[in-house]
Amino acid sequence: xxxxxxxxxxxxxxxxxxxxxxxxxxxxxxxxxxxxxxxxxxxxxxxxxxxxxxxxxxxxxxxxxxxxxxxxxxxxxxxxxxxxxxxxxxxxxxxxxxxxxxxxxxxxxxxxxxxxxxxxxxxxxxxxxxxxxxxxxxxxxxxxxxxxxxxxxxxxxxxxxxxxxxxxxxxxxxxxxxxxxxxxxxxxxxxxxxxxxxxxxxxxxxxxxxxxxxxxxxxxxxxxxxxxxxxxxxxxxxxxxxxxxxxxxxxxxxxxxxxxxxxxxxxxxxxxxxxxxxxxxxxxxxxxxxxxxxxxxxxxxxxxxxxxxxxxxxxxxxxxxxxxxxxxxxxxxxxxxxxxxxxxxxxxxxxxxxxxxxxxxxxxxxxxxxxxxxxxxxxxxxxxxxxxxxxxxxxxxxxxxxxxxxxxxxxxxxxxxxxxxxxxxxxxxxxxxxxxxxxxxxxxxxxxxxxxxxxxxxxxxxxxxxxxxxxxxxxxxxxxxxxxxxxxxxxxxxxxxx
Length: 498
Known about the structure:
Shape: globular
Strand content: 5-15%
GO molecular function, one term: monooxygenase activity
GO cellular component, one term: endoplasmic reticulum membrane
Order of helices and strands: HHHEEHHHHEHHHHHHHHHHEEEEHHHEE
CATH class: Mainly Alpha
Protein name: Putative cytochrome
Number of strands: 9
Binding site for heme: 443
Cofactor: heme
Helix content: 40-55%
Strand order of the largest sheet: 1-2-7-4
Distance between the termini: 86 Å
Radius of gyration: 24 Å
Number of domains: 1
Structural class: alpha+beta
């Protein structure tokens, strides 16, 4: 083959590739949906791969590119729809849930037993059955029974801060709060004392660090679950690595089997999972046994410690910068403690504490975006009712962007708990505040997470004044390599005993 023939064939190949790329890139515009022009291979995710910003901030960038209800985007090779209108969000998450029952996110069922068999990852029809059986576990009454386990760790949190003050008056509160939530979760989910405050090599704390390590490769691995599930099995990506799976499985099974043998109860997740295992099931019905049991405790640990440690530390950061909010909050806490002691009912009566936590979760939602998969043909709402969404089309929305939209929250960068007074809450569309998601797929552990967060704040603020120090970053920067919202370099704060 001579040179001209070779060049001709190369030209044909290039022209063919360009033709197919352009044809693919016109997917949304040919349907008269506003869209972004994709790059080959990466689509509209070049900056995501380069990790110029945190994933939450990156997804928020799509929100800012249009004022339309939706935007056609390309998640790597796949045409996807980004939605931003609250009425659309309600339709897809709630009203038309039967057409969007699954998340896009996926894990490897063969190589990631704990990561694939939990409520967050499992697909329908098993998801519905699992959700129905797990929902009673997270009832108000069951969570109230766990309250003494939380306060026990709260006392250890206070002791830790007192010991810290003997040698220094500043600490990375992100890490300190992670120790608190790690110990609460392991106590409530595994029936084990993790001793994170006293043991710098505590294994549960180490496992937690590994799961959400803010490292480039780990961030890409976690991101693939949400944005490129096709490669998860191919590349062997896991939520729980081999060591973590072995440790969590062994820890849970030891406690579970000992509890079954002795018949003792502790009013924790282990007790409730024992009850689930003992329920007789019909042929073909989901059985709670083996790794299916372990997986519920494992994901409860992973999600629970990360979400609440962030909420506590972000709250302490914000109120350290606004002492008037901190003083008002502390006054309420001390008043209710004087009246009731540190009880479940006392914390439920702390209305301003609830407003403060709500404002933190507005500004720093742990999971800053949601994903859904279109399962059957779906006619889009107005003004795109001419578009029929194809099965297999991913849907994304940015919780962070909605929470930071001045249309819903004037001066959104300002930390203002008054946004969550009863009158203000009633004046807003409920689909403009979704820190725990919305619809049937909302976070099943919402009550537990809120209570754990409030307990942590109560035990810090009843005894300590929190201030910024020379190492406090103002403004706070988000870690670009953390899948969920996390502060870059932690949160350094100064403490004084009251």
